[in-house]
Amino acid sequence: MLARESVAVLVAHPDDETLWAGGTLLSERNWSPFIGCACRAHDPDRAPKFRRVLKRLQAQGAMADLDDGPDQWPLSDERVEQALLECLPSRHFDRILTHSPLGEYTRHLRHEEVARAVLRLWLRGTLSAAELWLFAYDDDGGSCLPRALASADIVRELPVAVWQSKRRLITEEYGFAEASWEARSTPQREGFFRITTPERARAWLEQVRAP
In 3-state terms, what secondary structure has residue 92? Predict the structure, then answer.
């Protein structure tokens, strides 16, 4: 039997793990995933839903409670890093999945801040992993729903049954209506940028979404 790989999935919000990597998490049975969520720990609606989704994904997890108000005030680097570290049971993983500094759609600062925090922590050695996978999606400036980028290093077309299971997590567990943005956005194709070198990580840290 293959040893299970330790995988950390570090996201901004409960549902990001499902939207951008849910099919992969459902499919990779040799992974032992831990999902750390930066926001909504004290949200009476989303926090219990997140815990139910963890069970469906056969994952462990924890939540922090960074500000997630509609104004999206920027948070300090130190605050975001500390919130993520406090979620984690370890600093060492085989693989870490997280947002891209460009986010997956136009626009949510917390996605971008979490991505940059993970890259900084990895570059400093505070978090160690053989590789980082950054979610690779774009919505063309808001003109379409988020879709996996063809330029991604890893692009996975989910089997219909896996995609349907992923979508049920969004509609049944998280409770988003069929006509909601979340349900309509749930991609059947998942994309990731793979980072294994400090040079590429530093190049991604320089990526900033235009206002």
Answer: strand
Q: How far apart are CA 171 and CA 181, in angstroms?
A: 11
Name residue, tokens 């979610």: 135
Integer CA distances (angstroms), 138 to 83, 106, 201, in order: 26, 8, 19
Are the CB atoms for 31 and 57 separated by under 8 Å? no
5-205: CATH topology is: Rossmann fold (3.40.50)
Quote the DSSP letter at residue 20: H
pLDDT range class, residue 72, cuts 50, 70, 90:
confident
- The pair of three-digit structure tokens given for residue 26, joined into one six-digit string: 């459902």
According to the model, what pLDDT value does residue 71 have?
87
Burial class (CB in 10 A: 0-12, 13-18, 19+), 92: exposed
